[in-house]
Amino acid sequence: MPVEFLTADQRQRYGRYPDDLPADQQARCFYLDDTDHGIIRQCRTDVTRVGFALQLCTVRFLGTFLDDPTDVPPSIVALVTHQLGIPSPPDLDAYRRNPVRWKHTADIRQRYGYTAFAHQPAHFQFVRWLFIRAWYHHERPVVLFDRATAWLIQRKILLPGATILERLIATVRDRADARLWRLLAAPVTTEHQARLEALLRVPDGERMTTLERLRRAPTRQSGNGLRTALHRLTDIRPLAVGPIPESRIPHHRLLTLYRFVSTDRAQTIARLADDRRIATLRAFVSILEATAQDDVLDLLDAFITDVFATATRTGIQTRLRTLKDLDAAALILADIGRVVVDSAIAPTEVRAQALAAHPAAAITAAVEQVTAVTRPPDETYYDELVAQALRVGRVRPHLLRTITFDALPAGQAVLDAYRFLQEIEPKSRPSLAATPKPSSPVRGGATSNPARRLTGWPTPSASWIGSRMPCAAENSSSPPACAMPTHVRA
């Protein structure tokens, strides 16, 4: 980094009073307590007392002594004079020429514990703090300069010259950066280095470098976009050297290198020094791998949401087309219901009356029609989801090979199903004997035919319905085989 990073204006304002000081800041920073008054009263004249007080307030506020101790804003002079009980500010030109001001400087340093910048161990402590700050925070040089100034003032270490502090900060930042590059580049083998540097070259037949291609995240929320994201993640993973221990390298330092590679040209990165180039590319790949996987999951979520939305729309349209048949079946069952709840009909005559109103075949057909068309309000359109199998099948193989999930206990059943699909995907004729079974039926107690086929539950049929309602399956001329349950009587 440049050794000199301060502007001319910043260099001019360093260690000097600002042009304007708010009144509240004056009252807070230039207050003299009883101890100060006791020391100041030892001076013989008003001029020396005011001069001593001004130097004391100056070193507290600025962290240094001024070459001209009287170069203080008039408002500060008036405030200090008022605290000392002097009627009016004295002429300070005599104090500026008086050698006693140097004695006052030494006296303040001794009494109040101020040390020179180069004295040990204060200087070592400051350099160590500066390196830790540069290593963990990596702030801009000007920001670090301001924080260093505040740190020195707080610990009563006299500020050095602007150039000295500027060069020290630049040196410490360079050493922190060099340590970062060395730690990142050390585990990189020759093979991995060749892979990383290949990112900066344009492959044959291409118009852009591999780096520029990989850092472009797919944005299309479709099956093609998801496949592109999966291929991108597959291309990125072989570039990773290994996990970077965050206990040794702060994560935000990796993010800084990642942002640099994400926005700068490949030619600029190629011109970096060897250690810096390899370290920068390794940090970029480590963050890019996680980012690319997040992109895949975002597109997968959007893709699955669209699949379910399409199935729901198709299911609603299908139901609208079957409303006529559903109405006819509902009217038949409504007639049967009125017979059942009619208190004027004896319980033993209910079956005969129902079959007199509608034949057994019509009642059975109506039951099957209602069962096939109706569904609970919160049930998924499984038939329509099965129709989306081809669309999902285009991305399923690559997804199962690329993404590995984990789950909390509540999602363990879904995770088991996903891992089972991962196991059988490479097989040409997989066995479904080990298919995971759900631990509980679908909410609501009813499941459509595709869901039953997928979960292994029995599919309802006419014989199944007949086993539950044998009376309804018998011919109207046959004798009653059973009576209606008592709970339907009037």
Structure explained in plain terms:
By secondary structure, the protein is mostly helical. Among the domains are: 31-112, no CATH class; 322-379 and 464-490, no CATH class. 62% of the residues lie in helices and 0% in strands. It has 26 helices and no strands. It has helices spanning 8-13, 23-29, 34-40, 46-62, 74-83, 93-97, 100-112, 122-136, 141-154, 162-185, 190-198, 210-214, 223-236, 251-263, 266-270, 274-321, 323-341, 350-357, 360-373, 382-387, 389-393, 396-402, 412-424, 449-455, 462-468, 470-473. Helix 8 (122-136) runs antiparallel to helix 9, helix 8 packs across helix 10 (162-185) and helix 13 (223-236) runs antiparallel to helix 16 (274-321). Mean pLDDT is 83; it is low at 442-490.
Give the fraction of residues assigned to helices: 55-70%
What is the 3D form? Answer: elongated
Strand content: under 5%
Average pLDDT, all residues: 83
Write the layout of secondary structure elements.
Blueprint: H1 8-13, H2 23-29, H3 34-40, H4 46-62, H5 74-83, H6 93-97, H7 100-112, H8 122-136, H9 141-154, H10 162-185, H11 190-198, H12 210-214, H13 223-236, H14 251-263, H15 266-270, H16 274-321, H17 323-341, H18 350-357, H19 360-373, H20 382-387, H21 389-393, H22 396-402, H23 412-424, H24 449-455, H25 462-468, H26 470-473
Helix pairs in contact: 4-7, 8-9, 8-10, 10-16, 13-16, 14-16, 17-18, 17-19
Gist?
This protein is mostly helical. It is 62% helix and 0% strand.
